[in-house]
Amino acid sequence: MPSRLNPYLSFDGDARSAMEFYADVFGGTLTMNTYGEYGDPDAPEADRIMHALLETRSGYTIMGADSQAGMPLSRGDDVALSLSGDDGDELRGYWERLSDGGTVSVPLEKQMWGDEFGMCADRFGVHWMVNIGQPAT
């Protein structure tokens, strides 16, 4: 998959409703995964959205998720830019340059869903997410 850049929206418990609303507005295909699917299905946050992806017929991509308990969410911190794809060298290069002089909140490393993922704010305070998937075989 070629690399892509799209917004990633954060919500405080209403990601499902918001992403369903955007799917109604823009059309397309919406997929969602909960925290319970990747952890304890009996946890208090199990039904909250860990990752949602809306791919529209017009070529727009919107991603979103509910914040986890203990992670404060405020206006300005509720939108990040997401870089994703399977070209690890390209995406690691972007990560190195974006995180240089910035603040890394999640180091770029392998995650429970199998991809490499990291989060940072660049030196200008812009929030970034980088996800390196496995190349399709």
Automatic annotation (TrEMBL):
<protein>
    <submittedName>
        <fullName>PhnB protein</fullName>
    </submittedName>
</protein>
<dbReference type="InterPro" id="IPR029068">
    <property type="entry name" value="Glyas_Bleomycin-R_OHBP_Dase"/>
</dbReference>
<dbReference type="Pfam" id="PF06983">
    <property type="entry name" value="3-dmu-9_3-mt"/>
</dbReference>
<dbReference type="InterPro" id="IPR028973">
    <property type="entry name" value="PhnB-like"/>
</dbReference>
<feature type="domain" description="PhnB-like">
    <location>
        <begin position="5"/>
        <end position="130"/>
    </location>
</feature>
